[in-house]
Amino acid sequence: MREITASGQTVEEAKENALNQLDLTEDQVNVEVIDEGKKGLLGVFGAKRAYVKIQEKRDLVSEGKSYLQNIALEMGAEGTDVTVTQQGNEVTYELIGDRIGLLIGKRGQTINSLQYLTSLVVNKDQNSYITVVVDAEGYRERRKETLENLASNLAKKAMRLNEEVQIEPMPSFERKIIHTALHDHSEVSTYSDGKDPNRRVVIQPNNLS
Amino acid sequence: MKPLIETIVSPLVDHPDYVEVTVEETDRKVRYHLTVHEDDVGKVIGKNGRIAKAVRTVVHAANSNTNKKVYVDIM
Hints:
The complex is a heterodimer of chains A (209) and B (75). Chain A is α+β, with helices and mostly antiparallel strands and 209 residues long. Helix content of chain A is 38%, strand content 26%. Chain A folds into three domains: 54 residues, no CATH class; 78 residues, K homology (KH) domain (GMP Synthetase, Chain A, domain 3, 2-Layer Sandwich), CATH 3.30.300.20; 64 residues, CATH 3.30.1370.50. In chain A, helix 2 runs antiparallel to helix 4 and helix 5 crosses helix 6. Chain B is 35% helix and 25% strand. Chain B has three helices and three strands, in the order αββααβ. Classes of the chains: A alpha+beta (209), B alpha+beta (75). Chain B: It holds the Pfam family KH_KhpA-B.
């Protein structure tokens, strides 16, 4: 992280000097005024220059990108590229490469772990929370379809057996897909049961006797 | 595998210089011992071991092409 101290006749000028030296704009840095300076008599006698300290802000979103790239490389998925799309408070990292299967893992457990670890890096000592999504080859969309099918099949099963049906434990964002899929269903309702990481969705027939 | 663990863990902690991984290897097992600064232990274990679990999942995935069983211990 770069940091410099610069001076000028006024605080504004000092700030401008510093930004020119670092080749950055004002929103990329933290500014600390060390000395406001004094104009002095006729701008000559007793004049004191203004000093400011400029510190480059950490770009946590791009740190998340290099974090994923480094891990992919060390995992043996050489040449994995990462594209970043940011939308409001949500950042999506899309992994592109030849060894995506390795990075997704069985039932997405590897990609989910990578997503969790990346969100820790991106949200490290930050006040506002950024939602991190790690995706690869449309995995999240495909998984959503799979879960919606699973939800409708298990809803039928619950109705047929007239008893509660438990789904295997999954992370919160996947449980949400199941809840949403069955939200408008007239004959079953859903709730989650257990503690993470073993929290699971239970489908319950409405007219359970 | 050692650099992988360091790559995963270092950005999570406040004292990356203290991250250390040692290896203990036998015929069928590889055991990695991860040590971090004492203030950072919580940052690599997490609530209910959630971070530790994620680290292990990624390490296991990277290890899937070998036959040896891998363990990651956090001291």
